[in-house]
Design brief:
alpha+beta, 119 residues, 4 helices, GMP Synthetase, Chain A, domain 3, 2 domains, globular
Length: 119
């Protein structure tokens, strides 16, 4: 019985290690998106009243967090709109996370209200 528990723990540790290695490998292969391309995307987002503020953060340009004024609904569709802009600019694969901008400004709380993968 004791041997079975040790083997399960070992297998779980191996799986965790593999997932970390695979994630690192995928991320290391991505080229950082240029500041110029980020600026162009931000300028397009600024023309859309759905996104009242500059993107709240970028991660290598392949993952972006944007803020919206909450209306109580799921905002995955807004994330998909940002995805379409990213794909238009050749940024793929990418991820978009949508946050309640009022919560960030007022309480410094990051409440995610939508997300999408851009592929």
């Amino acid at each position: 019985m004791g041997m079975c528990v040790i083997n399960k723990r070992f297998v779980i540790l191996i799986l965790i290690a593999l997932s970390v290695v695979v994630t690192w490998y995928i991320e290391s292969g991505r080229q950082e998106v240029s500041a110029d391309l980020r600026s162009r995307l931000e300028a397009e987002l600024a023309q859309d009243s759905t996104f009242p503020a500059r993107p709240v953060w970028w991660d290598k340009g392949h993952r972006i967090g944007v803020g919206v004024i909450p209306d109580g609904s799921n905002r995955d569709s807004d994330a998909r709109r940002v995805c379409s802009l990213m794909l238009k600019h050749g940024i793929s694969p990418a991820e978009v996370e949508v946050f309640d901008v009022l919560q960030i400004q007022n309480d410094d709380e990051w409440v995610q209200v939508g997300a999408a993968r851009c592929e």
